[in-house]
């Protein structure tokens, strides 16, 4: 009896069990967050079985694990399979937090060095892309609880702050962020651009980033809102 009571699983087995528990815990979190934010999600089973955005994220986690082990070809095979099945292209190198809702999902592209925080929402046609043939960090970093509207191209190694919201069809070419606690409407996710501190909007919950204003940016190195 003492031999049985002192028995413990080998460390590799315990590590595998722990990883499986985390995987199922993350999946459960993703599904519940999707149900909170999508009024069309009527049941847990519906989200699990019928939401391509969730399937893309699930497959990406496997591809990302392969990528981190430097199994780049295998990682890309899995990511391309995900693209074929879901219409969503996520590079295996992208870092994605928990609770991501890719609503409908078609034509969403997420680049290799993109970073997405927790509980973000991405609508169809969004591109988190790079500016060209640059190496290193070349894709956006998206803060927690951010929302990217349909068709928004967010290009380059810039930051979108926590709770920020980018309107449908509007892109960015500068570092973006949210106002601090002193903002008049912090819940709205007020966006700033590196325009010497000028506010694009103080109250609208969906804030378009106007290309003509972006062309006036002279301080791309501002890091106040990161």
Helix and strand arrangement:
Blueprint: H1 2-5, H2 11-37, H3 44-50, H4 52-68, H5 72-86, E1 88-90, E2 95-96, E3 101-102, E4 108-110, E5 115-116, E6 121-122, E7 127-129, E8 141-142, E9 147-148, E10 153-155, E11 159-160, E12 165-166, E13 177-178, E14 191-192, H6 211-214
Parallel strand pairs: 1-4, 2-5, 3-6, 4-7, 5-8, 6-9, 7-10, 8-11, 9-12
Antiparallel strand pairs: 13-14
Order of helices and strands: HHHHHEEEEEEEEEEEEEEH
Question: Order of strands across the biggest sheet?
Answer: 1-4-7-10
Given helix and strand content, the structural type is alpha/beta
What gyration radius follows from the Cα positions, in whole Å?
20 Å
Largest sheet: 4 strands, parallel
Considering DSSP H and I runs of 4 or more, what fraction of the residues is helical?
Answer: 25-40%
Measured by DSSP, the beta-strand proportion falls in 5-15%
The total count of helices amounts to 6
**Low-confidence region ranges:** 173-226
Tally of extended strands?
Answer: 14
Shape: globular
Distance between the termini: 59 Å
Query: On the 0-100 scale, what is the average pLDDT?
Result: 77
